[in-house]
Fold these 3 entries.
Entry 1:
Amino acid sequence: MSGFDKRLTPARPDLAAAHLRGKVEAARFAEGEVMQVIDVSAPLRSKPTPEASLDTEALHGERVVVYEANEEGWSWGQLVRDGYVGWLPSNALAKESAKPTHRVRAMRTFVFPKPDIKSPPIASISFASEFVVAREDAGFAVAEHGGFIPKQHIVEAGYRESDPVEVAKRFLGTPYLWGGKTSAGLDCSGLVQLALQSAGFECPRDSDMQQKIGKAISFAGDEKVLTRGDLVFWKGHVGFYAGEGRLLHANAFHMAVAEETLAEAITRIGATGAPVLEVRRL
C-alpha cells in the first residue's frame, strides 16, 4: 500500500478492488457493485461500528461502489464522486437505478407522502441530495421511488451555481460537525466541497486534498492580493476568503459556520502554532 492514500484506495490486506490487481497485495479481489444511498444520508466510517469516528457522509442519491457487505449490517466501498473509502450502513443503500435527474438546492427540504404540505413529511433531505424525478404533480416533483418534494426546492442535476462563496454563506450558523456534510452539521472541508461542487468544480473531501486544487497564490499577510473565493489553508483547516477582509469557514471555535475578519482568524489560529500554509485560487 506504499504510495497510496488509504482514504482513496479501496484496498485492505484481505480484500481490494479488482482494478487494483497487480498494484496492491490482497488475499482476494472483488469487482464491486454500484449502489445508491436511499437514506437521508449515510455516515462513512473507517471501521464497521457506530463508535468509529465519522470520516464523511454520503448524501441521498449518492453512488457507492460496494466491495463487501458483512453480516453485521455494514458495507465497505468507495464513494463514486470524491473517491472516499470506508464503511456505510448496508440498510442505507440499494442497487443503483437511474442516474439522478435533480438535486436539492434549498438547505433542506421535506419529502411528503402526497401532494399536500399539510401532510406529515416522511423524510427531510439536505442540500445537494440527488434523486430521480418521475413526474410532476400539483407543484411537487414526484421521486422515482415515491415521495413528493416541493419544486421550489430543487434544480436539475446539471444546474451550476454562479458563486460558491454565496452558497457557503447559506450555511451560516450551521453547527460544526467533524466529518459532517449536510445542513444539519458539517466541517470546514465539507463546506468547501459542497459549495465548490454546486458551482461545477469537482473537489476532494479533506482539506489536505483540497490544498492540491487550483493554483497557489503568494500571500504574506497582504489581503490586497486575495480575491473572493480564494481558499485559505492552515494545517487541518480551510476557509473561503469572502472579500472585504472576511473569512467564511466552518470551525470548532464558533462550533458553527461563521464569518469573521481574516486578520482575526489568522491571529487566533496562529496563537495555537498554526500559521497560514497556503492560499489557492481556482
Entry 2:
Amino acid sequence: MSDWLGIRDRVYVVTGGSSGIGLAIVRELLAVGAKVANFDIKDSDLKDDRLLFIQTDVTSHEAVKASVAKVLEHFGSIDGLVNNAGINIPSLLVDTREPRGPYELDEAKFDRMMAINVKGLFFVSQEVSRILAEKKSGVIVNMASEAGLEGSEGQSIYSATKGAVYSLTRSWAKELAKHNIRVVGIAPGIMEETGLRTLAYETALAYTRGKTVDELREGYGNTSTIPLGRSGKLSEVADFVLYVLSDKASYITGVTTNVAGGKTRG
C-alpha cells in the first residue's frame, strides 16, 4: 500500500486494538508502514515486527503510565493515539418485569462502563498528551457513537459515556491546540458483525427492547434508515481514522464525524 498519507514509521497507540474496529485500525496502520502499540487486556492473533502488544487495564492510571513508558522504551516516541477501548452492557433503568434483575442497571454496571469508556479514555489521553505536548505535534482520535447524541433504548449509560466523548473531544481540542495537537472524534454507525456481538450481549439487548434474539438479529439486516442502504465495513472506519491521523487532515480538530452511511435522526 502506498504511503500517500505520509504516516509510515510514525508511532500510534491504539486502545482496544485486539478485536472489532480496533483490530481493523491496527491492521490498516501496519499496512501503510506505521508502528503500533496495542493497549488491550487480551492479545490478538495478529503478529508483526512493528506491532507491540502491551497488556493494559485502561481503568488503572498506574497501568496506563507504565504502558506509555514501555512504548517510549520500545519505539522511542509517540505520534498519535486512537482511543477505541470501550464496553457496552445493555440494561434498563427500571425493569418492571423483573425488578432489580440481571437486565436492570446497577452500580457495578454503571461504574464498569464509566471506568472504561470515560475514565480510561481520560487516563490514556492525559499520558500520551504529555508526550505530544513536548513534541508540539500529534493527533488524538476518540471513538464516539451516534448513541452519544441520539440516546439508545437499553443502552442509556453507554450512550452517556459516548456523550462525554463528544464533550471531551471539543474541550481537549481547544486546550491542546496551543501545543499543535489535534483532537477528533469519530462516530461509527451500524457496522458489519464482529466477534464482539456475543450471545450474552444480544440476549441482554433483546430483553431491554422486548424482543427475542432472533427478532433482534433480523433487524441487523434492516438498513432502511441508512441512505446508502447497507451496513458499514470496519475497514471504512479504519480508513477515516488513518486519514484523520495524517497531515492530510491538518486543519480538522474539535469535531466528531459520523461514519454511518448518511444515517441521522431523520
Entry 3:
Amino acid sequence: MSKAKSEFLDVLTARGFIHQCSDLDAVDALAAKGEIVAYVGYDCTAPSLHVGHLLSIMMLAWLQRTGAGKPIALMGGGTTRVGDPSGKDETRVLRTVEEIDANKEALKGVFAKLLAFGDGRHDAVMLDNAEWLAPLNYIDFLRDVGRHFSVNRMLTMDSAKLRLEREQELSFIEFNYMLLQSYDFVELARRYGCNLQMGGSDQWGNIVMGLDLGRRMGVKHPLHALTCPLLTTASGAKMGKTAAGAVWLNEAQLSAYDYWQYWRNSEDADVGRFLKLFTMLPLDEIARLAALQGAEINEAKKVLATEATALIHGRDKAEAAAETARLTFEKGQTASDLPTVEIAASELAAGIGVLNAFVKAGLVKSNGEARRQIQGGGLKVNDANIADEKAVLDSASLTSDGIVKLSLGKKKHVLLRPV
C-alpha cells in the first residue's frame, strides 16, 4: 500500500501498530469512508486484563477517534469455557461459569476509559459471545460449521503445531477453540455488519480461518484481518511481564502507583516506541521526548509513565503517582500514596520476622529470596539497610507516621500499616 488514504491507517502505521493485514488497501478504503466495524475478543480468564491486551484496545480507540468506524469489544463468556491454546504450553485451567461471569464484569471498566459507548454510528458496543455460543447444538454445529474446517490445516496453525512439536498435550476441547473464534466473526458479520477482526499476531491463524469460514458460510461482505505485533522490550523480555507477575490494568490487581512505576522503569531504547503505542501524545512531541539523551531521558520516562497511567487510571491518580515518586525518590520522604499492606497490630506488637514481613508485603516471593536480597544489600526497613536475616519488626519499628516502610532496591516500596 502507498500512503494511507485514511487517518486510521496513517496513525496505526506511524505509531507501529500494524504487523499483518489481509488487505491493507481494502481496509484503508473502508476506513476513509468511516465504514469499518471492527472487533477484538477478550477471554475472561482473570479479573483484569493486562498491559499485553492494551495494544488491541488502543487500536479500537484509534478506530473511533479517527472516525474510521465502530469498535466492538467482545467478551469471551463462551470461548473462555473452552480455553485458547495460543501461546500456551499446557491446557488452561477450566473455570466455572460463575468465575467467568465474575471476571467478565471486572473486565468491563477498562474499556469505558478508552472508548465511547452508545447507540451512534461510531459508538462502541460491548458484546458477549456466550449469547450465540452457549445455545449451540453440538450436532448442528458440526454439520453447519465444522464441515468447513480441514483438520490438516488446523494442525498447521501455531496454536496446535507448536504444542505437537514439543510433544505437549493438546486437548480436544482446546482444538475446538479456533472453530468457535471463527464462528464469532461470522455471527458478528451477520448481526452487526462486522468486517474487520483485530488482535495480536498470535491470533493471525485463527482470524484468517474466520475470514475463510465467513466466505464458506455465505457472509455477503468481505471480511478482513489486522494484527498488531506481540511486543518485547529492547532487552528481549516479553512485554507486560515483571518479576512480580503480570502488569494488570485494574487497580484491584495493581495499584496506580505500581502501574506508573512499570512505565517509569522502561528501558531507554523503548521510550519512543512506548510513547507512540501507549499514549495519545502528538507524534512531534513524542519525537522531541524520544530524542532526549543521558539523564534527560528520565524526564521522558516520567512523561510516558504519567500519560500511560492517565489513560487507564485517570489524570488525578497518574499525577498523584508521579508526586509520590518525586517525594519518595527525590525528597527522601515517605509518601502516603505508596502501596500499603495492612497487618494486624497485635501481630506486629508480638514481632514479625523481617523475612516474613517482606514476603507478606509482596516484595519477594519467599524467605529464601529475601535472604538472597539481604546478602546483596537489597532490602531496607525505613530506608536503613537490613544486614541480619533474623531481625524482627515490632511496634518500635513504626515511624512517626505509624507505618513501617519496606524497600526492595531503590524503586520498590511498600508500607506496612498496623490495623
